[in-house]
Design brief:
Blueprint: H1 7-20, H2 22-29, H3 40-54, H4 61-71, H5 79-86, H6 96-123, H7 130-146, H8 156-167, H9 179-185, H10 204-217
Helix pairs in contact: 1-2, 1-3, 1-6, 2-6, 3-4, 4-5, 6-7
Length: 218
C-alpha cells in the first residue's frame, strides 16, 4: 500500500476519476469491487456511477446527483455539495487504477481482520467442539477470499457439471459402497482431492471413514 495516500483519500480519488471519465469507471471496476469502499457513502456513490455507466447513461456530478435523488439516497451521501467536492479531487483520471488498487488492498486487509476476529470468537466459544470450530473457520476464510475476487463470480454448480462432463463415463475410478455416489462421480480418481461438507453432527466423519476403508481395500 502507498503510505502517502490515506485510504479515505484513495476512495475520493477513485470517485473523482469515475465522475470524470467513463474509461476510468471500467479501469476501477477491473481493479476493485464497489463493496471495497470503506466509507458507506462512497460505496453508494460508486454503485450509482457504475449502474449509470453500464446502462450507457451519462456519468458526471449532475447525472449522479439525479440518480441518487431518484433512489432516495442523495441526502445520505451528503447531498449535491459533497458530490461536487469530489469533482476535480483527483488531478487526472489516468491514475484511477492506481488509487483503486489502494482501495482494494485496504479492503482485503479489512476483511482479513474481520475474519480473524470471527475465528477468534469461535475458538473461545466453549459450546463448539473442535470440528465445529474448524468448519466455521474454513467458512469464514472462504467467504473472505470470495469477497476479494474482482470480476464475474464463478458459478460453482456450472463448474462442477463441466468438470463431471469432462471426466466422461469411461473414466471410472475406485468405487465405494455408496452406489449412487459412484454413479454420479464415476468413482474416485487417483490423486484427486475430495471435500465432504455438511452441517455439524450429521455424520461427515463416519462417511469419511467408510470411504477411506473402501478405497484402502481397492
Amino acid at each position: 500500500m502507498n503510505d502517502t495516500v490515506t485510504p479515505i483519500d484513495a476512495e475520493r480519488h477513485v470517485l473523482s476519476a469515475m465522475l470524470t471519465s467513463l474509461n476510468a469507471v471500467w479501469e476501477v471496476t477491473a481493479t476493485m469491487r464497489v463493496s471495497d469502499m470503506g466509507e458507506p457513502r462512497h460505496e453508494t456513490i460508486a454503485q450509482a456511477i457504475y449502474d449509470l455507466a453500464t446502462s450507457d447513461e451519462i456519468v458526471g456530478p449532475i447525472a449522479v446527483t439525479s440518480e441518487l435523488e431518484r433512489r432516495g439516497e442523495l441526502n445520505r451521501i451528503g447531498g449535491p455539495a459533497y458530490l461536487f467536492t469530489l469533482d476535480g479531487f483527483t488531478p487526472t483520471p489516468a491514475n484511477a487504477a492506481f488509487y483503486a488498487a489502494i482501495v482494494h488492498d485496504t479492503a482485503k486487509r479489512r476483511r482479513a481482520g474481520v475474519a480473524a476476529e470471527q475465528i477468534r470468537q469461535a475458538v473461545t466459544d466453549k459450546t463448539l467442539d473442535v470440528d465445529d470450530v474448524l468448519d466455521r473457520a474454513r467458512a469464514v476464510l472462504e467467504q473472505a477470499v470470495h469477497d476479494t475476487v474482482v470480476g464475474q463470480d464463478p458459478d460453482p454448480q456450472a463448474e462442477l457439471l463441466e468438470a463431471l462432463e469432462s471426466v466422461g463415463t469411461a473414466a471410472i475410478g475406485y468405487p465405494s459402497r455408496f452406489h449412487d455416489l459412484n454413479e454420479h462421480m464415476h468413482g474416485f480418481q487417483p490423486g484427486a482431492l475430495y471435500v465432504i461438507g455438511a452441517r455439524p453432527g450429521v455424520g461427515k466423519s463416519a462417511v469419511a471413514l467408510q470411504l477411506a476403508t473402501d478405497l484402502a481395500k481397492n
